[in-house]
């Protein structure tokens, strides 16, 4: 679990709201107009449990993901990076603060609306177990649209399938595909519905380096060539180096960020973070 | 290993619950059967306890050889018996028949015990055969007692006037008391008792008894009394001691209940057989889920044998606890069975529940053995998990073994089974003894090939399911995903439904044929006959003739004539009206012959024609009962039918030669058909005499066996319900397991936008799909087996034609769909309520 025991004075829920916003963190963000964000979190706080078992996973995080950009979220285990992704993707509820997806405030949505939001406006790529074994590759790709009862955009679908190189495997079942191919199907599924934003949770975690590199290329290509917005959680500096920008999390707070990263630079930042975290 | 097994049972208790319930229900059925038969046996044994309590010796005079009637003995015999040394008291018995009407006039207990007897007070003024509950003993010809069963059914209270009939007109008697009697115990019959003289006058002959029971003084030998009584009675009297009577009662009870117990145990075995599928399925799933755990145990040094043993110990523990719970539930089942049998009026006497010590042992034994048997294969499969599987992080389900050998075996079994059943069916009555074996082979064959069948069969439902959108498509895929599991789940339902369908086909065909035939041959609206004796008094015919509701009528008037060396039973019918009332199917000639030929035409049925070698047109010399001679001509031969007399001749010809009028029945045609209103108006015309029975064609068909078949069918439905309930649990179990196994998949589906209700629908559709698949297999097999069974019984049921009861089959299918919905409720709810994030992280 990516959680951090709070050593903070934050004990009462009422108090945390009255705390002054962390201006310093804001200052490090690029100055952009709010409407250019595909998703934006303000003072996003996630608390698990109460009393002695109270754990603050995200501590008033304010972050925006600019449209058509590829952002990586990095951080040591337990830094809150997956929780951040889950909260912003409508998979988990917020304790405090707000999350906007485009112009939708997702904190005010109920479960049905959140489900519809995920279906229609968000794409997902998970680390493993991404596909339904009973459906063929193409059925897996169109699954969210089939659930919605929408007809997929044929031309767009074809171009996606071409890009990920699956044209000749569309009728295969996941069991007949390699791990890399399965993950490419998953990426195609995430992109097929032209979502506002794609969230990828350790998409290369179970792949060999070559297949992993392919997936990362697709994700990057989808932002540069197709104008998609992609947010990826990873702990692999090489994977993060494919992104336009890397946001570093530690102890539930954003502690750093890097633009146009290289693997070495990411590794160096992480090395700086980790000892501090372990103290 | 034992501790590991115990921990496993505890750790997976929720998952094992369903399995346990399956075992439990099977055990409960077995226990219920045993307790029920013991109870019924005991009840029969104790049935005449009150009657026999004070009987030391029972004496019955010999049959009267001349009249063929039961023998009687008079007051003098009674007094001589009383004077025997060692006799405390003697009770003289008078028994007979009395039809009783309810207070509102409707006849009571038409097909049941309707007894009448004497109230024989001893010195203390009481008759200990029938202890009084309220009121007093009857005195004089106008008073009567009824038993509790009659009072309850008829709505009678002390002081009311009871309407009854012995063998003629309606009698009105004042009810002075209510008694308890063994004779109607649990049967729903009626019993009335008169004072001694009245009973003798009405039921026997004045001053006569049909038997005596002697109550010995304390210390007197029953045996000696019996010997002494013999000298006082006519030769060939039947004399039994109390001990002999009780022994006889015990033997009869055992004989009656052993057969019943065996039949019930067959159904219990079916339920257990179905249970084995459910249990085996669960263990297979548990073992698959635990393969990593097992591999770890193997990796740290557990032997294959130890793994197998661990699973088997787990099964034994489960079986033991299921046995215990099943035992308790079984006692409830026994009570339910008694209700079931009591409701059919099969006359099981009341009595306390009897739980034999052996039953307790059996319940545990059955629980353990059945569970371990079912766990055998899964246990072996568990042992074959390689230790290296513990090291792989990903779940790799064991590769499905090829079904080819399995299919070959299944097809072979089916072919042998079908050929065997067809052979048995074509060998008629002799086939009955051998048909069970090929039927079982056929069903097992179907079970063996079901996994291979499930894929294509379920694919057929594809177009329909896809209309439900993504949930439908996913349900289709899920149902086909694990053919073995789908198959064994469906097989459990298949077994129950094949029996239900087979029995329904035979029973419905038989009753439909009976009703059809009654309808075809009897065009009369009602047949009026006596409940007691074979004959109605002529007054019934006359009363009906006066009724305005009746448009035409004819008696079936009997007379025995001599024809050469043979006696022939002739039935006189009204030549003018018989055409409205009966419609025999003629081999030659027609009903019109009765009105022609100067009244000398005789119609006979094919059996009579064959027996006496009579052909159409033959002239037959006959001697009537009054000695006059005549020559009749065979004017027609019709097909033998139980609803028709064996011969028919014009009443006008027969009537002058009759000494007394004896009508077996009167047939009437009415203005307004055979409805309830008409029935009531006819009953009123007949003074609402409870002795007289009115039957329309449906009633006739029911009396001819249709009613008994329907009753039996409903009883068998009740017994098969247990097997079906277990099968339903199997469906619940399978779905719960698949939801559990697919937790991550469901999490992913929810993440990409499947709404909770869509998730629920997906599980429900899968459930319905599996249930319908099993139901269709069962119905198919059942129709075939029903056809075969029909071929075998068609000899004994005239005009038997197979009827496929589509209505009931549709109901069974609808029932199966409902089973699917109900079985899916809990798993679907669970699936819909899964937390997306937790589900995504599940292993």
Automatic annotation (TrEMBL), chain A:
Species for this entry: Streptomyces humidus
Annotated InterPro entries: AAA+_ATPase, ABC_transporter-like_ATP-bd, ABC_transporter-like_CS, ABC_transpr_LolD-like, MacB-like_ATP-bd, P-loop_NTPase
Name this polypeptide is given: ABC transporter ATP-binding protein
Source organism phylogeny: Bacteria, Bacillati, Actinomycetota, Actinomycetes, Kitasatosporales
Annotated ranges, domain ABC transporter: 39-276
Highest taxon of the lineage: Bacteria
Gene Ontology cellular-component terms listed: membrane protein complex; plasma membrane
PROSITE patterns recorded: ABC_TRANSPORTER_1, ABC_TRANSPORTER_2
The entry's keywords: ATP-binding, Nucleotide-binding, Transport
One GO MF term attached to the UniProt entry: ATP binding
Automatic annotation (TrEMBL), chain B:
Topology in the lipid bilayer: Multi-pass membrane protein
UniProt key word Transmembrane: yes
Primary localisation category: membrane
UniProtKB keywords: Cell membrane, Membrane, Transmembrane, Transmembrane helix
Highest rank taxon of the organism: Bacteria
Domain (ABC3 transporter permease C-terminal) ranges: 266-387, 719-835
Record localization: Cell membrane
Domain MacB-like periplasmic core: 17-231, 486-683
Pfam families: FtsX, MacB_PCD
TM ranges: 263-288, 311-334, 354-377, 408-428, 440-465, 486-508, 715-740, 768-789, 809-828
Similarity section: Belongs to the ABC-4 integral membrane protein family.
Protein name per its UniProtKB record: ABC transporter
Species for this entry: Streptomyces humidus
């Amino acid at each position: 679990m990516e959680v951090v025991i709070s050593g903070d004075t934050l004990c009462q829920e009422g108090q945390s709201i009255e705390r002054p916003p962390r201006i310093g963190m804001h200052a490090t963000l690029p100055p952009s107009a709010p409407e250019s964000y595909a998703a934006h979190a303000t003072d996003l706080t996630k608390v698990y449990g109460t009393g002695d078992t109270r754990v603050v996973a995200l501590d008033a995080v304010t972050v925006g993901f600019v449209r058509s950009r590829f952002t990586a979220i990095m951080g040591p285990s337990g830094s809150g990076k997956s929780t951040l992704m889950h909260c912003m993707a409508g998979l988990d509820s917020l304790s405090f603060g707000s999350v906007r997806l485009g112009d939708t405030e997702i904190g005010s949505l109920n479960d049905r609306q959140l489900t519809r939001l995920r279906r229609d406006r968000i794409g997902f790529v998970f680390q493993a177990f991404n596909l339904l074994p009973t459906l063929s590759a193409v059925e897996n790709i169109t699954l969210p649209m089939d659930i919605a009862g929408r007809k997929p955009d044929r031309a767009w679908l074809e171009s996606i399938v071409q890009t990920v190189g699956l044209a000749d495997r569309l009728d295969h079942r996941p069991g007949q595909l390699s791990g890399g191919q399965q993950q490419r199907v998953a990426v195609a599924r995430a992109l097929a519905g032209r979502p506002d934003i794609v969230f990828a949770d350790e998409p290369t975690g179970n792949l060999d380096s070559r297949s992993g590199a392919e997936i990362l290329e697709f994700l990057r290509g989808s932002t540069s060539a197709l104008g998609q917005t992609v947010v990826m959680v990873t702990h692999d500096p090489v994977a993060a180096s494919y992104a336009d920008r890397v946001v570093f999390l530690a102890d539930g707070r954003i502690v750093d960020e890097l633009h146009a990263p290289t693997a070495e630079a990411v590794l160096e930042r992480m090395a700086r973070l980790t000892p501090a975290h372990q103290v | 290993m034992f501790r590991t097994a115990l921990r496993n049972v505890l750790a997976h208790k929720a998952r094992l619950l369903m399995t346990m319930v399956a075992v439990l229900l099977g055990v409960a059925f077995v226990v219920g059967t045993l307790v029920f038969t013991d109870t019924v046996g005991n009840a029969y044994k104790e049935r005449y306890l009150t009657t026999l309590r004070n009987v030391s010796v029972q004496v019955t005079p010999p049959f009267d050889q001349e009249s063929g009637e039961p023998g009687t003995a008079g007051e003098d015999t009674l007094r001589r018996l009383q004077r025997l040394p060692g006799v405390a008291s003697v009770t003289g018995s008078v028994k007979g028949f009395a039809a009783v009407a309810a207070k509102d006039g409707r006849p009571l207990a038409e097909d049941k015990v309707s007894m009448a007897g004497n109230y024989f007070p001893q010195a203390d003024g009481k008759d200990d055969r029938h202890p009084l509950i309220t009121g007093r003993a009857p005195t004089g010809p106008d008073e009567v007692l009824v038993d509790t069963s009659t009072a309850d059914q008829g709505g009678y209270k002390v002081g009311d006037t009871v309407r009854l009939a012995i063998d003629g007109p309606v009698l009105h008697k004042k009810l002075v008391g209510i008694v308890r009697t063994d004779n109607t115990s649990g049967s729903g019959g009626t019993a009335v008792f008169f004072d001694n003289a009245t009973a003798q006058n009405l039921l026997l002959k004045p001053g006569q008894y049909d038997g005596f029971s002697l109550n010995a003084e304390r210390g007197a030998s029953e045996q000696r009394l019996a010997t002494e009584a013999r000298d006082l009675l006519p030769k060939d009297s039947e004399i039994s001691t109390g001990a002999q009577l009780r022994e006889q009662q015990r033997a009869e009870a055992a004989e009656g209940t052993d057969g019943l117990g065996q039949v019930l145990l067959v159904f219990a075995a079916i339920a257990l057989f179905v249970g084995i599928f459910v249990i085996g399925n669960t263990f297979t799933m548990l073992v698959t889920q635990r393969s990593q755990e097992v591999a770890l145990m193997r990796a740290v040094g557990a032997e294959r044998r130890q793994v197998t043993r661990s699973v088997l110990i787990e099964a034994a523990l489960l079986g033991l606890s299921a046995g215990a719970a099943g035992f308790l539930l079984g006692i409830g089942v026994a009570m339910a069975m008694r209700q079931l049998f009591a409701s059919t009026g099969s006359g099981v006497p009341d009595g306390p529940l009897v739980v034999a010590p052996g039953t307790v042992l059996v319940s545990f034994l059955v629980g353990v053995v059945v569970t371990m048997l079912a766990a055998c294969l899964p246990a072996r499969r568990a042992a074959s998990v390689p230790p290296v599987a513990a090291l792989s992080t990903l779940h790799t389900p064991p590769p499905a073994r090829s079904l080819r050998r399995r299919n070959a075996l299944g097809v072979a079994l089916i072919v042998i089974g079908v050929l065997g059943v067809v052979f048995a069916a074509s060998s008629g009555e002799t086939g009955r003894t051998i048909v069970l074996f090929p039927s079982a082979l056929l069903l097992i064959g179907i079970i063996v090939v079901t996994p291979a069948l499930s894929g294509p069969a379920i694919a057929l439902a594809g177009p329909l399911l896809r209309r439900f959108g993504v949930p439908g498509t996913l349900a289709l895929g899920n149902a086909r995903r694990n053919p073995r599991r789908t198959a064994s789940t469906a097989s459990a339902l298949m077994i129950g439904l094949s029996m239900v369908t087979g029995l329904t086909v035979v029973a419905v065909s038989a009753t439909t044929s009976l009703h059809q035939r009654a309808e075809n041959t009897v065009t009369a609206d009602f047949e009026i006959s006596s409940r007691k004796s074979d004959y109605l008094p002529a007054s019934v015919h006359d009363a009906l003739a006066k009724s305005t509701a009746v448009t035409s009528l004819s008696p079936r008037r009997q007379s025995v004539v001599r024809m050469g060396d043979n006696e022939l039973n002739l039935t006189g019918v009204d030549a003018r009206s018989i055409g409205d009332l009966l419609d025999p199917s003629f081999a030659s000639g027609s009903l019109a012959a009765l009105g022609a030929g100067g009244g000398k035409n005789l119609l006979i049925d094919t059996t009579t024609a064959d027996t006496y070698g009579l052909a159409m047109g033959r002239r037959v010399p006959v001697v009537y009962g009054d000695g006059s001679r005549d020559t009749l001509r065979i004017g027609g031969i019709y097909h033998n039918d139980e609803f028709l007399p064996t011969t028919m001749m014009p009443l006008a010809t027969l009537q002058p030669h009759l000494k007394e009028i004896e009508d077996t029945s009167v047939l009437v045609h009415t203005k307004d058909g055979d409805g309830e209103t008409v029935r009531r108006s006819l009953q009123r015309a007949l003074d609402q005499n409870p002795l007289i029975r009115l039957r329309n064609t449906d009633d006739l068909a029911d009396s001819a066996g249709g009613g008994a078949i329907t009753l039996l069918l409903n009883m068998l439905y009740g017994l098969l319900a247990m097997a079906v309930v277990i099968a339903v649990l199997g469906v619940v179990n399978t779905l719960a397991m698949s939801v559990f196994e697919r937790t991550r998949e469901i999490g992913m589906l929810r993440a990409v936008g499947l709404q909770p209700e869509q998730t629920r629908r997906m599980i429900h559709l899968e459930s319905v799909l599996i249930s319908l698949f099993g139901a269709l297999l069962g119905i198919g097999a059942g129709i075939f087996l029903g056809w075969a069974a029909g071929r075998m019984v068609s000899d004994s049921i005239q005009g038997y034609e197979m009827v496929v009861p589509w209505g009931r089959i549709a109901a069974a299918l609808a029932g199966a769909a409902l089973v699917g919905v109900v079985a899916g409720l809990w798993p679907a709810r669970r699936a819909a309520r899964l937390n997306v994030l937790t589900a995504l992280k599940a292993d």
